[in-house]
């Protein structure tokens, strides 16, 4: 009897070891975007597809709406290894200046143009600069075409921005752009924007439509101006050190899924623009 009990205990301990091993392969994917935004939808689609292919090799656990922190926090957690994947957008230009290319006004004409920039400029030139900062970009996705909303007046020309307090991402070039147009730019985390608009701390903001409606900013804004002044990508990003620790077959699945999801994302973004 004692022998059987010892054997059972050994079996339980072995199962415990397997559970710990399985939990070690959890891939934590966290973003700041809210449900309804193209970023959130794309992240969900990536998670679903990746988990189908990963099987028992690993599993992606997704957290949206800044549950694990704002973009700046998430970039730090990528290096610490407490988060394995994140989806930064404009903040990337403050990490690698080369990414500021996508903060230039009216540079990207449309999705086809962005796709050409991705293959001819981003992967050969910008991605290596990001890697030098300790990150690994595994997917080049869309945040969207940005438009201005505010509570002061319609914005038809840059001159109309004179004196308007407008929230921007924490992007040096975005701040310079709105300053040059006469606005009073206020860098602020996206999660703080709704209350800041509601209380009058700022007059307006600029974002893609899906971000605006996903965060319900339309409920606290009077005017939307179809400016299309910046077309920002988002980057499926890992910490370089943590990425290198993942098994090669897991890395390959995640990279291929990121590529496969891109077509779905562009099609969904185009439909959102129409609707």
Task: Give structural notes.
- This protein is an alpha/beta fold and about 280 residues long.
- It folds into 2 domains: about 25-145 and about 235-275, D-Maltodextrin-Binding Protein, domain 2, CATH 3.40.190.170; about 145-230, D-Maltodextrin-Binding Protein, domain 2.
- It contains 10 helices and 8 strands.
- Strands 6-5-7-4-8 form a 5-stranded mixed beta sheet, sandwiched between helices.
- Helix 2 runs antiparallel to helix 10 (about 250-275).
Number-wise, the strands total 8
Broad structural category = alpha/beta
Find the CATH superfamily of the largest domain.
Bacterial extracellular solute-binding protein, family 7
The CATH class designation of the largest domain is: Alpha Beta
CATH architecture of the largest domain: 3-Layer(aba) Sandwich
CATH topology of the largest domain: D-Maltodextrin-Binding Protein, domain 2
Task: Give the helix/strand layout.
Blueprint: H1 2-24, E1 26-30, H2 38-54, E2 59-63, H3 71-80, E3 85-86, H4 92-95, H5 111-131, E4 135-150, E5 165-168, H6 172-180, E6 184-187, H7 193-198, E7 204-207, H8 209-214, E8 223-239, H9 240-245, H10 248-274
Parallel strand pairs: 1-2, 1-3, 5-6, 5-7
Antiparallel strand pairs: 4-7, 4-8
Helix pairs in contact: 2-10
What's the short story on this structure?
The chain is 47% helix and 21% strand.
